[in-house]
Amino acid sequence: MRLSCKHIVICCTVMPGYCDTIAPELLRDCPEVTISYSPEFVAQGAIVQGTLQPELVLIGQGSNEAGAALERLTLRYVSSSPRVIRMSPSSAEIAKLALN
Hints:
By secondary structure, this protein is α/β, with parallel strands linked by helices. The protein has 4 helices and 4 strands. The strands form 2 sheets. It has a two-stranded parallel ribbon with strand order 1-2. β3, α3 and β4 form a beta-alpha-beta unit. The termini are far apart.
């Protein structure tokens, strides 16, 4: 299967460097694929609430365009007014670990 002009968002916790090293290698045959990282901050037992009413949305954007699209999409389904922070994927990987 060949993917092109697609945007892949990794939402689970990964080790720093994953989005810059491992993920691109897995998608090396897929031209024009952007990889972003937007982990969720949810507590066990409060997953629905944490997903629909986050205090913080962390976006490690693969490009400015991808980050803007991901921000718009996220803000459409949340019922809170979260703080949205956009940065590079590698910075977001480190921030996720630091904030946990």
